[in-house]
Structures are given as C-alpha cells and as structure tokens.
Amino acid sequence: MKYILDTNVLSEAVKTKPNRHVMAMLEKHQAEIATASPVWHELQYGCLRLPVSRKREIIESFLEDVIRQNIIIFPYDERSAKWHAQERARLAAKGQMPSYVDGQIAAIAKVNGLALVTRNTADFKIFTDLEVQNWHKGV
After folding, report:
1. In the CATH scheme, what is the homologous superfamily, with its name and number, of domain 3-133?
2. Looking at CB atoms within 10 Å, which of 4, 59, 82, 93 has the fewest?
C-alpha cells in the first residue's frame, strides 16, 4: 500500500460529475490504495443520514461492494493513538487544534508509512512529517 484515501477522495466515485483527475488516479493506483477506519465511519454516517432513496441505495452498494470488498481499512490502533496524542499535545502547545478525526486519519497514515490523499491538504499540513497529496487537480 502507498496511499490512505480521505473521505472526500473516496466519495468522488459516487458523485454525478466526479473529478476526472481523481478518477484517473484511483484507477492508476487501485492496487496501492487503502483507507482508515475513521474515514469508513464518515462514509457510513453520511450515507445513514440520507433519507431512504435511490441515491442512498447507490451509496450503500458502493460502500459495501466497492470499498469494503476491495480496499483495506486500516484501524485506529495503539500506535496510531500514541502518535495522535503526541501530535495533539505538540499542536495544542502552539495553539493549534485540528479536528479529532483528522488527527486520527493522519495518525493512521503516518504510523503505516502511507501518504494521505485529501482535498483538504491545509487541514493536514500541520502534522509532523506527514506526506499529504491532493488528487483534485483544477478544483
């Protein structure tokens, strides 16, 4: 694996007009992508908040048949929790308070030696030695 995908990258695939560059990168790197358990939570939560509809059925199918069946979902484990705690303490001392879930995702990427792919690069640039990429070209 080379990449941990954030929610906003994985969700491109079910958009009516997905970003072409993101879709090309997903295809190119399909054997090298994974995601994180907090991202899985965000995807599930977003889906479950939708009213019962055709759109929700499509997203449920995508989550189950594409993501869960084909993409490794890395857990937020003891190593991730330790790195996350260290980073939260470091950042808090500087007056910076990133979202808790962003910290979890960053930690999972970092301790597993993976680049984090997200549209929200600014949210993750504050973490120590975390490789962050944006596949949303032209956005």
Report:
1. 5'-nuclease (3.40.50.1010)
2. 93
